[in-house]
């Protein structure tokens, strides 16, 4: 049986009429902020104190959008006869977000946890050259990074925390023993005329 002429138009209009009678769910974006899922990817925040200028992030970036400049500083020896120590000091850390594809490789390869995902997403600029954000702006975004998810209560304690707790307990026991010995010495001095 051949289709009735205009049946496709009638079906399309029926869908349109059904949709027109439903309540709209459009969020008026600038007036109401969207509820982003936890740990969503927005921009990259820099925790500058952890950055050792190892340049792993810049080397692994497939877009080459991370720019790092540094210089070496030497510090005098801590003890006489020791040797001078040198360390890299961060001069410039910039990310060109017009090139970045938000893959997260730089965050994954950072061995010192200096880079984090921030949920900030409102950083549009009128000029493409202004999308290169320097370390000051990246540091501002660092404070919008959410806390990591809590550990599973049934999971075993990380080795680092267990080792730190063991060392802290040992130190506390040693201090308590020293205080007890000092107390005993004071009691002996006070008891004998």
Automatic annotation (TrEMBL):
Q: What residues bind [4Fe-4S] cluster 1, as annotated? A: 51, 54, 57, 110
**Record PROSITE patterns:** 4FE4S_FER_1, 4FE4S_FER_2
Q: Which Pfam families match?
A: Fer4 (PF00037)
InterPro entries attached here?
4Fe4S_Fe-S-bd, 4Fe4S_Fe_S_CS, NADH_quinone_OxRdtase_chainI
Region Disordered, as annotated, extends over 148-193
Query: Taking every annotated instance into account, which residue ranges of this chain make up the domain 4Fe-4S ferredoxin-type?
Result: 42-71, 91-120
Matching Gene3D superfamilies: 3.30.70.3270
Co-factor(s):
[4Fe-4S] cluster
Membrane disposition = Peripheral membrane protein
Main subcellular localisation: membrane
Q: Where are the transmembrane segments?
A: none
Q: Does the keyword Translocase apply?
A: yes
Q: Where is the composition biased (Basic and acidic residues)?
A: 156-169, 175-193
Q: Which UniProt keywords apply?
A: 4Fe-4S, Cell membrane, Iron, Iron-sulfur, Membrane, Metal-binding, NAD, Quinone, Repeat, Translocase, Ubiquinone
Q: How does it assemble?
A: NDH-1 is composed of 14 different subunits. Subunits NuoA, H, J, K, L, M, N constitute the membrane sector of the complex.
In UniProt terms, what function does this protein have?
NDH-1 shuttles electrons from NADH, via FMN and iron-sulfur (Fe-S) centers, to quinones in the respiratory chain. The immediate electron acceptor for the enzyme in this species is believed to be ubiquinone. Couples the redox reaction to proton translocation (for every two electrons transferred, four hydrogen ions are translocated across the cytoplasmic membrane), and thus conserves the redox energy in a proton gradient.
State the name under which the record lists this protein: NADH-quinone oxidoreductase subunit I
The species this protein was found in: Streptomyces badius
What gene makes this protein? nuoI2
